[in-house]
Specification:
Elements (H helix, E strand, L loop, with lengths): L7 H13 L4 H17 L5 H13 L5 H13 L9
Helix pairs in contact: 1-2, 2-3, 3-4
Length: 86
């Protein structure tokens, strides 16, 4: 575990979002980091596709980068259009 320094404004954004979504501030930050990381890895996927990848990874019991990457690659290689992947 490490320490990440963020701006006061980002901390306030995290606090507001975490309250609205019933998450801890750390859980909200991790969620945004996962979504951002996946968005950079798979720029052709939309937000719902990225969330689907996270749900599938969670169901398989592993939210690590390797399992998510493998799942994302499999969906992309299957040629299923964005928005229709599951």
């Amino acid at each position: 575990m490490g320490i990440v320094k963020i701006s006061d404004q980002m901390h306030e954004n995290l606090r507001l979002a975490s309250t609205a979504l019933s998450r801890s501030i750390n859980a909200q930050a991790e969620h945004w980091m996962r979504i951002g990381m996946l968005a950079e890895m798979y720029p052709d996927l939309d937000h719902s596709d990225l969330c689907r990848l996270l749900v599938q990874a969670g169901q398989s019991g592993s939210l690590d980068l390797n399992s998510i990457s493998t799942m994302g690659t499999a969906a992309i290689r299957a040629g299923v259009p964005a928005g229709a992947r599951q």
